[in-house]
Amino acid sequence: MDGVRPGIGETGFVRPGAAGPGAADGSTVSATRLTDGQTASLDRVLELFGGHPFALLTGAGLSTDSGIPDYRGPNATPRKPVTYQEFTGDPSLRQRYWARNHLGWAQMHRAAPNAGHFAAAALERQGALTGVITQNVDRLHEDAGAANVVDLHGRFDRVVCLQCGEEYSRDFIATILGELNPGFLAAVAAAGGAGSAPDADADLESEALIAAFRVASCPLCGGMLKPDFVFFGENVPKDRVERAFSMVDSAGALLVAGSSLTVMSGLRFVRKAAKNGVPVAIVNRGATRGDELATIKLEAGVGESLSYLSTALGR
Ligand SMILES: [Zn+2]
Predict the structure, then answer these.
(1) Which of these is catalytic: 102, 117, 141, 153?
(2) What residue spans define the domains of the chain?
(3) Is 109 labeled as catalytic in the residue annotation?
(4) Neighbours of 205 (CB within 10 A)
(5) N or C: which end of the chain has fewer CB within 10 A?
(6) Looking at domain 1-12+34-68+113-153+235-315, which of 2.60.120.10, 3.40.50.10610, 3.40.190.10, 3.40.50.1220 is its CATH number?
(7) What separation in Å is there between the alpha carbon of 216 and the centre of ligand 1?
(8) pLDDT greater than 50 at residue 229
(9) What whole-number distance in Å separates Cα of residue 109 and Cα of residue 103?
(10) CA of 88 to the centre of ligand 1 (A)
(11) How many angstroms separate the alpha carbon of residue 25 from the centre of ligand 1?
(12) Residue burial 27-49, b: 16+ Cβ < 10 Å; e: rest
């Protein structure tokens, strides 16, 4: 199905500052430096782009340096995502989901943009971008100051009512969940806490705590609430897709940074750029589904690479 995304589920925990994905040798990601070969490849990317504004497509690999786990990175733990159909159709699964999301939201809430997000915002200010298309729901591009961003898969800081369509801030829903579940956060902490997982999920293992969790309903109509993410089995809203396509169509090139392009929702922009006959560059640790369409593929840290491009263009 077109438009599905990696959804919400279970994975391992990567603590901020710990050895992150891609650092198989145990060194921290932030400590990695570009090699001469990598900077030469990035110079070649700029040469290929020929000074034309490019569209930037980012994925989870960009936010790992901010302590947000990747669901598909080289070191990611496989997990089974919750589908839209499961979420809406199974009350006990929804209860589990919200209990974990209540913890995961707080963790993601504390994440801060890293060098890669700031470099993307700088590239935008330099006039180098037609826009940013991100598969991340963490809003860190916006936090870093980027203005023209399509949050392809939604945003963690918003909740929607599936019945009346009202949108709420996640902060507001957190207050309601806190009132419905007094002592929940303290009980989790007392039980040893919970590890973080992608998409504002958390590794909460206590079945008793999950079973006691009370889910919030829409304050206006009593309808079912859902985080404003695009779940597996759900399509990206059409106007959002069109906005992203227009960023690609008005671009002289496409740069993919930190995405394995596993799902069609991201891969289709690479296909579109290739069809438009513009160069495609991919910076990612590990293979991507778009590699065969790429003019140039670079295995390197995303934050370092974007910073290098911004600095090079500023010269
Ligand atoms: Zn409602």
Answers:
(1) 153
(2) 1-12+34-68+113-153+235-315, 80-110+159-229
(3) no
(4) 11
(5) C
(6) 3.40.50.1220
(7) 11
(8) yes
(9) 10
(10) 14
(11) 49
(12) eebeebebeeebbebbeebbebb
